[in-house]
Design brief:
Length: 1434
């Protein structure tokens, strides 16, 4: 029946449209010509008419069972008759060889013996009827779904239960959703008859209300779907007698959310059980439903609600309330109503000519919102440059060609169903020309303006018509290589130019122009080939931007890839903003969808998307607005107040929750109240969402009540207010006398009205029935208005402007009116708005002040000449920059003729405009002014820094980078820093400058297999920007070993080269010739130095007193470990220290410090013995490095081991001799500096390896003092240092003269240094001709308190004293290797003296030597001279 009704409706509609199409066919040629702008058809031309072609009947969704037969109806009308075919799931069916499926004469599809199994479902699917007329076209019907019910499967079965007589019971039976219509029930294996008391719900559940004894028995449900019936398990229902006691009220079945289509029936189940037997009431959106008088609402057995013929108005939240007198329970469910697609506007038939543009319009509605697709002659229309979907649903065809003729159908589809509507396109031939001359071709067709997306063409009149005043022109154009041509007509006769819009950048187009006169179209001009300009390859807008609320706090946004992506899309930026605010937020997204969480509930947001490619941001999409879902209120109503009316009623007032906490539309309020003495007895009342007060009546006299209110949305109930108490009166209010005067009266005059507000009398014990308001000009008795006692304000309307009114207010009751209260007011004058618009500001100028500030000034012609503002006008300044293209305007208001715009970006062009506002009038925006902010130093480093090695040249690398993101100006250059130590000070890195237009640079002659660190810094005209992060790169390993003397020493895996000054970043080994020459110079200087030392030693020896000799002898006797083999009276001579710049020669005897700090100075055998050193001293040394810039020291180690040649030292220990007195040389420091500290563990010496004396297992150590060197102002080279070891050869003496604390101290205190600094020390200054001619000097320890390095090996002094090994004290001298290694020569060097704390120690330091000791020392020096000569000759 439904199909027949639909067919009749469609037939009637089709007949109407057929009649309209016939009329349109008679009028269309002229109308189409007028619409397209071309000449109308001549009367003599043949006119093609539209052919009626449509469906009489279309297939509908059908449910079937296995083995049955199905007919899918379809019938189409056309002359001649159409050919009918069928598609299943988009593929044509071959009905010729099909035994079960055949085509009926009217076009319907008949399927016999439907096949359906678990793995074979050939008949289930989507069917579509296709009608075709040769030489006319093809149309397709709506899509119908054939559902075949599967095998019965029970998801729940009846279970044994019991019910009290008169109560309700349910029995479950849930099967496949498609088999529910085939379910029936049996009682005691006999079919169960259903009635008003026993019903079956749509889910298959059986409901028995008001149970009787006859309802007891065995129940089972049966599914009969064409095959053998399938039975569920049997369950026994027992009916128990009424126990006459109460039982808890519970729901047996609650309503659940449902979705239905308009026109369907729906049942909302709700069954409750309890004693007494409950009654069921229903509410929708807080409104009670009247099921007794309504024809569409029926209350079924047990309390379920049935709604017939559902409409959109039925959607909402339904509440099932069960009440048995003792308690009340409620449940709720949401009913969603959907609608199939319907056409608000169907496409219409169109006449057109070739090259024209047409639009088929199609407007649909439905819920959910339908999607629209277009079909031409049965085939899907794929959007392209010439077939476009515009305004979401309309189809635009550009540049028609003959093959575009046919039938076009708009197909709308949503989750509920689908529908189609079609129209025919006929392309007419151009009318033949009438008798008369036709114009020749237009002359000189040129492209006067060529842009990226438009071209302006101009031409001259044809030669046949030089004036051409009555000529119109048509411009035909097409892409090169495309046959489809489009046309653009001039707007009026005589116009000889046209602008072609919406072109593609960097594309070649072919243009030709044709003139028309009253006789027809003339000749075409010669084709003109023009290529549009290329544009920055930025992405276009992302299409199909959609947003939908996923929850009360989240929204999901989806989009598609831009059609004009102009390359790979790197990412998208999603912008969103809360409605009513100006703070836009953004998030980077790499996919085509994103869910934004943490949003405000029930709040509207706007979204837009910008695509990014390698060139930057593209065009922004239009904004899309969506609101988050609602939720229960998160706060209680506000301002709850109670007003006791009388002895039996209380008025409750409240305000809605704060807007930010409502989380949706307030649908109602729930009022709960109880007696304060009985807290369990609570009464509830529901009121509508617009009601903000409620009178609670029927209360007890003189009783205290507690009240609370909660707000409701469709999602549920929010939190309630705190309990508020009020007590009813013992007796009713007094009405034996008139009310007293109102406590206050306020008036607010407007132009034609006065708002009156008041408060009630202070005495609340007298009844007030209402208020009387009197008013009039000069007298309050002209008119009187009475209002209700609840009212607290009133607006007096229809008054005269600028008039003086007297107002009176009196309260009244049944006895009479009370005492009046007077007030007067003058209404406001009537003002007529000035209709003249305001003039926009002129002379807008932008003055650049800094990199982020521009001052905007302007003039206002509506002001007097002196430009002084005397009224309340204000100005609005807006500004923006066009980079990126999607930036929005920013605004600011000003009350003067200038404004300071701050917070701008450096080196950026801004445009500014100004408008003026006065009252309700505003001007248009002024002409724009432009200004470019000054440059600023770059605020971001160069990016994408990469380092690669150059192929074939392992010592050469290539550094690549990209300009900074925030260059803030034109980059004029880059500086590349590189180093092998990433922690080195930046001024110790090697620098390579690069010009600003380069983004790559080669660095050559690096060391192989060495890690380098690179940083890049950009600069512009304002200065240097920040450095990039360090990028590490290890050069490749060497393919083979070098020549003789080029192999670097093996310094270990943990070696870090120390920092040292070097003029050239590119070090190279010294040639053998230069090395020999340097060695000769070094040895010569050493010999001269030793001779000078000996002479000074002889001079100083003579000054020794006999007292000092005895003291030294006493020290020798105590310190037995200082004795050498064969000579118990020998004394260990002091060390010889030689500084690079100056020498201080001082004979010092053994230090009497009770606890001296001894340091081992091991002797490496060759350059490979050098061990890694700690370069923690480099930062102090660097400040004094410039003194060596003229002569690079050979004994310094370069920071860049590969770029600066690392030259290891050769240690030459001299022959070991018995200790003799010798002069010690000390570096000079500032004697007035008291901060001399001794660092016991960081003493620097030429190498950190250990030399073991033959025959002794103990390392050879020497005592060295650094206290005099701690704050030396001289430039000192930092050389590799050794681990500090306390030496067994250094012992204490004269301990009885020392402070007790000094006996245990391991360092010298600052106070002792102050005493020593006051002494005058003899010095000798020697300036070496080359820095390599000096011995290596230990590094300066950093100033600070004495510390020890626990990681360094050490030996306690006491344990060393217990050993009686005779250990020689050997000192090493460091000489540059000069390119090759030499065997070491032993040298005996005295230890450096320890600085003492008393003046007696200074006297000890000036001890002299015996003549026989000098003789032995001279012999030792002669042996040294021979060894040095042997070195030079070698």
């Amino acid at each position: 029946m439904a199909a027949e009704r639909g067919a009749r409706r469609l037939l009637g509609t089709s007949s109407f449209w057929l009649y309209c199409l016939l009329l349109l066919g008679r009028r269309a040629p002229g109308a189409a010509a007028a619409r397209s702008g071309s000449a109308p058809q001549s009367p003599g031309a043949s006119i093609r008419t539209f052919t009626p072609f449509y469906f009489l009947v279309e297939p509908v969704d059908t449910l079937s069972v296995r083995g049955s037969s199905v007919i899918l109806n379809c019938s189409a009308y056309s002359e001649p008759s159409p050919k009918i075919e069928w598609k299943k799931d988009g593929t044509f069916l071959n009905l010729v060889s099909d035994d079960r499926r055949q085509l009926l004469p009217d076009g319907s599809l008949f399927i016999s013996n439907v096949v359906h199994s678990k793995h074979n479902k050939p008949d289930e699917g989507y069917y579509q009827c296709v009608a075709t007329v040769e030489s006319l076209g093809t149309i397709i019907s709506r899509t119908a779904k054939l559902i075949v019910a599967g095998l019965p499967r029970f998801t729940s079965q009846p279970e044994p239960s019991s019910v009290y007589a008169g109560n309700n019971a349910i029995l479950n039976c849930e099967v496949n959703a498609d088999l529910v219509p085939f379910v029936r029930w049996e009682q005691n294996r006999q079919p169960l008859l259903l009635d008003d008391r026993v019903i079956k719900l749509p889910s298959g559940m059986l409901v028995i209300s008001n149970a009787t004894e006859g309802d007891g028995g065995l129940y089972r449900c049966v599914v009969e779907s064409g095959g053998p019936p399938k039975y569920s398990d049997e369950a026994e229902l027992k009916v128990l007698p009424d126990p006459e006691v109460t039982s808890d009220l519970v729901f047996l079945k609650q309503p659940s959310p449902l979705v239905r289509v308009i026109g369907q029936d729906v049942v909302l189940p709700c069954v409750a059980s309890g004693l007494p037997t409950p009654t069921i009431k229903w509410m929708k959106n807080e409104e009670a439903l009247d099921t007794e008088s309504s024809e569409r609402l029926v209350l079924l057995a047990g309390g379920s609600l049935e709604i017939s013929d559902v409409t959109e108005d039925d959607a909402g939240t339904y509440f099932c309330i069960a009440d048995n007198g003792n308690e009340t329970i409620e449940a709720q469910a949401e009913l969603t109503v959907q609608a199939q697609p319907e056409f608000l506007k169907q496409p219409t038939n169109i006449y057109a000519h070739e090259s024209m543009d047409i639009v088929f319009e199609c407007e649909v509605t439905g819920k959910p919102t339908p999607t629209v697709k277009w079909v031409k002659n049965g085939d899907m229309v794929i959007p392209s440059d010439y077939f476009k979907i515009v305004k979401e649903h309309n189809l635009q065809v550009l540049g028609l060609v003959k093959s575009d003729e046919g039938f076009y159908q708009c197909i709308a589809e949503n989750d509920v169903g689908n529908a189609q509507a079609g129209a025919q396109l006929i392309i007419l031939e151009h009318a033949p020309a009438t008798t008369g001359p036709l114009p020749s071709a237009p002359r000189d067709v040129v492209a006067s303006l060529v842009s990226t997306r438009f071209i302006k063409l101009t031409w001259r009149t044809p030669a046949s018509d030089p004036h051409g005043d009555n000529l119109t022109y048509s411009v035909f154009y097409t892409k090169e290589g495309i046959a489809r041509e489009r046309v653009e007509n001039t707007s009026h006769p005589g116009e000889m130019q046209v602008t072609i819009q919406n072109l593609m950048p960097a594309t070649v187009y072919i243009f030709r122009v044709m003139a028309q006169n009253k006789h027809g179209s003339g000749e075409s001009s010669a084709p003109l080939r023009v290529e549009t300009q290329p544009e920055v390859q930025l992405p276009g807008p992302a299409p199909n931007l959609r947003a939908y609320a996923a929850s009360p706090t989240s929204i999901t946004v989806t989009w598609e890839t831009p059609v004009s992506g102009n390359g790979e899309i790197q990412n998208y930026k999603l912008y969103y903003m809360e409605k009513g605010t100006d703070k836009e937020q953004d998030v980077d997204v790499s996919s085509h969808s994103y869910t934004i969480n943490g949003l405000k509930k029930y709040t509207e947001y706007s979204f837009r998307v910008v695509a990014y490619n390698k060139h930057g941001p593209g065009v922004s999409t239009p904004d899309v607005a969506v609101r988050t879902l609602s939720d229960v209120p998160s706060a209680a109503p506000q301002n709850l107040s109670l007003e006791v009316r009388n002895s039996k009623s209380i008025m409750i007032h409240w305000q809605p929750p704060a807007p930010a906490t409502q989380n949706g539309q307030i649908t109602g309020y729930k009022i709960r109240y109880r007696k304060a003495s009985r807290k369990s007895d609570v009464t509830e009342t529901l009121v509508s969402g617009t009601q903000l007060s409620q009178l609670i009546e029927g209360l007890d006299r003189g009783t205290e009540y507690n009240f609370r209110v909660a707000a409701l949305t469709i999602n549920g109930t929010g939190p309630a207010t705190d309990w508020l108490s009020a007590e009813t009166f013992e007796s009713d209010l007094d009405e034996t006398r008139v009310p007293e005067v109102p406590s206050s009266l306020h008036v607010r005059p407007l132009v034609t009205s006065i708002v009156v507000s008041w408060t009630p009398p202070e005495n609340q014990n007298i009844v007030v029935r209402g208020y009387a308001i009197g008013y009039g000009i000069g007298s309050p008795h002209a008119q009187t208005i009475k209002v209700d006692y609840k009212q607290r304000y009133y607006t007096i309307e229809n008054l005269d402007p600028s008039s003086h009114y007297v107002i009176t207010l009196k309260a009244f009751n049944n006895v009479g009116e009370g005492i009046p209260l007077y007030e007067s007011a003058v209404t406001r004058p009537h003002t007529v708005p000035d209709p003249t618009p305001m003039m926009p500001p002129v002379g807008v100028q932008a003055s650049i002040l800094s990199h982020d500030t521009i001052r905007i000034t302007w003039a206002d012609n509506s002001l007097p000449k002196h430009q002084k503002i005397t009224d309340s006008r204000y100005y609005t300044v807006r500004w923006k920059t066009n980079i990126p293209a999607n930036t929005k305007y920013k605004n600011a208001n000003a009350t003067t003729l200038s404004y300071l715009v701050t917070g701008l970006k450096p080196n950026t062009l801004y445009e500014f405009s100004v408008m003026v506002t006065k009252g309700r009038r505003s001007s248009t925006w002024s002409m724009t002014a432009h200004g470019t902010t000054f440059e600023l130093v770059p605020t971001s480093p160069p990016k994408d820094v990469t380092v690669v090695s150059k192929e074939g040249k392992p010592k050469t690398i290539i550094v690549n980078w990209q300009p900074p993101s925030e260059a803030n100006g034109k980059i004029t250059g880059y500086i590349i820093y590189y180093s092998t130590d990433v922690n080195a000070e930046i001024h110790d890195w090697v620098i390579e400058p690069v010009v600003g237009n380069r983004l790559t640079h080669q660095i050559q002659e690096l060391t192989l297999d060495t890690p380098y660190y690179f940083k890049i810094q950009a600069r512009n005209s304002k200065g240097m920007g920040p450095m990039s992060e360090a990028v590490q790169f290890r050069t490749p390993k060497a393919s083979g070993s070098g020549g003789k003397g080029s192999r670097l020493p093996d310094l270990g895996s943990d070696y870090k080269p120390p920092m040292s000054g070097s003029n050239s970043p590119h070090g190279s080994p010294t040639s053998p010739l230069d090395s020999n020459m340097l060695l000769v110079i070094i040895v010569s200087v050493g010999v001269i130095t030793i001779v000078v030392v000996v002479i000074i030693a002889v001079f100083c020896t003579r000054r020794t007193t006999s007292h000092q000799k005895k003291k030294r002898a006493a020290c020798k006797s105590v310190n037995g470990s200082h004795k050498y083999k064969g000579n118990s009276k020998d004394v260990k001579p002091p060390d010889l220290w030689i500084h690079h710049e100056r020498l201080e020669l001082k004979p010092i005897d053994k230090s009497p410090d009770p606890n001296p700090i001894m340091t081992d100075t091991p002797i490496p055998r060759n350059s490979q013995d050098i061990t890694p050193v700690d370069n923690s001293m480099d930062s102090n040394i660097h400040q004094r490095r410039n003194s060596y810039r003229g002569h690079e020291s050979e004994d310094s180690m370069s920071t860049l081991a590969g770029r600066r040649g690392m030259r290891p030292k050769m240690m030459m220990p001299f022959d070991s001799q018995p200790p003799q007195p010798v002069i010690s040389a000390h570096p000079i420091h500032s004697l007035d500096n008291p901060h001399h500290h001794f660092h016991s563990s960081s003493l620097a010496s030429p190498a950190r390896s250990h030399l073991y004396h033959p025959g002794s297992p103990w390392p050879i150590g020497t005592s060295m003092s650094l206290s005099d060197r701690a704050n030396s102002t001289e430039s000192v080279r930092n050389t590799p240092s050794t681990d500090t070891m306390p030496a067994s050869s250094s012992q204490t003496c004269c301990t009885d003269h020392q402070d007790p604390e000094g006996a245990t101290s391991s360092s010298y205190l600052a106070s002792s240094q102050e005493e020593d600094s006051g002494q005058s020390l003899p010095t000798a200054h020697v300036r070496p001709s080359h820095p390599l001619k000096s011995f290596a000097v230990p590094a300066i320890p950093p100033p600070g308190p004495p510390t020890y390095d626990p990681a360094l090996p050490s030996t306690p002094l006491l344990s060393q004293q217990a050993l009686n090994h005779h250990i020689h004290s050997v000192k090493t001298a460091s000489i540059g290797t000069l390119g090759r290694s030499r065997p070491p020569m032993p040298v005996v060097v005295p230890s450096a003296p320890e600085v003492q704390e008393t003046t007696r120690m200074l006297e000890d330091s000036e001890s002299s030597y015996e003549p026989d000791e000098l003789t032995k020392e001279m012999a030792h020096l002669e042996g040294l001279m021979k060894d040095l000569n042997a070195i030079t000759t070698a």
